[in-house]
Amino acid sequence: MLHILAQKNSLLNQFIAELRDKEVQKDSLRFRKNMERIGEVFAYEISKHLDYKEKEITTPLGVSKINIPTSKIVIATILRAGLPFHNGLLNYFDTAENAFISAHRKYHKDGSFTIQFEHLSSPDIEGKILVLSDPMLASGASMEIAYKALIERGKPKHTHIVTIIASNQGINYVKKHINMKNVTIWAGNVDDELTSKSYIVPGLGDAGDLAFGSKM
Ligand code: URA
User: Does 199 contact ligand 1 (Cβ within 6 A)?
Assistant: First the structure.
């Protein structure tokens, strides 16, 4: 199942437009803030697909019944670009546990690269709702590595793969290399082109650099 949120008009489109805009990008605080706000929007949309149980709430004047989410959530994020997005998800899933995956592009002499998996810190994910986020789903290779590293340690009840900008190629790669039973993909927008260096076009540039500054 694939949801593309920008296909339906909402305030999210304004946040995505600002993320992509090369003038607005000069304000890295706004860039991070928009990523965080988008994380909140995704959390809200995903919350419509959780398990709920009725609860009685005692108000000063009586008792009110309301359905409350009961799912146990683990938010997993690929470092480093995903950190503000992660914060946004965590702002709404305030009791969620957290996992972090570190992977980087290892460039070869011919200019090609492979994704090098480095580190995973994760709580037990068995039977829980895994929200696996990466703001840019480019080739899909990091997402595959992160997902497979996580499910080696436990089987989530359902996984929500969440990304702000995806490439068509990345979506197809994930669908091909990850067993999509009990997996939903959420994308803000999907772009058609991926460069030979795996940058999404039109995309927004390097999300990690825009949020945190350029690296060596
Ligand atoms: N990561 C980014 O930050 N940007 C892209 O276009 C692709 C991967």
Answer: yes
Cβ–Cβ < 8 Å for 135, 142: no
Q: Tell me, what's the pLDDT at 122?
A: 96
Percentage, residues of the chain above pLDDT 90? 88
Q: What mean pLDDT, rounded, does the chain reach? A: 95
How remote is the CA of residue 89 from the centroid of ligand 1, in Å?
20
What number does the ligand 1 atom closest to the CA of 210 have?
3
Going from the Cα of 138 to the center of ligand 1, the distance in angstroms, rounded, reads: 6
The angle formed by the CA atoms of residues 129, 41 and 101, to the nearest 5 degrees, is 50
Beta bridge partners of 4: 187
Domain around 196: 2-49+71-212
The CATH number given to whatever domain includes residue 155 is 3.40.50.2020
Looking at residue 140, what is its pLDDT? 95
**CA-nearest residue, atom 7 of ligand 1:** 199
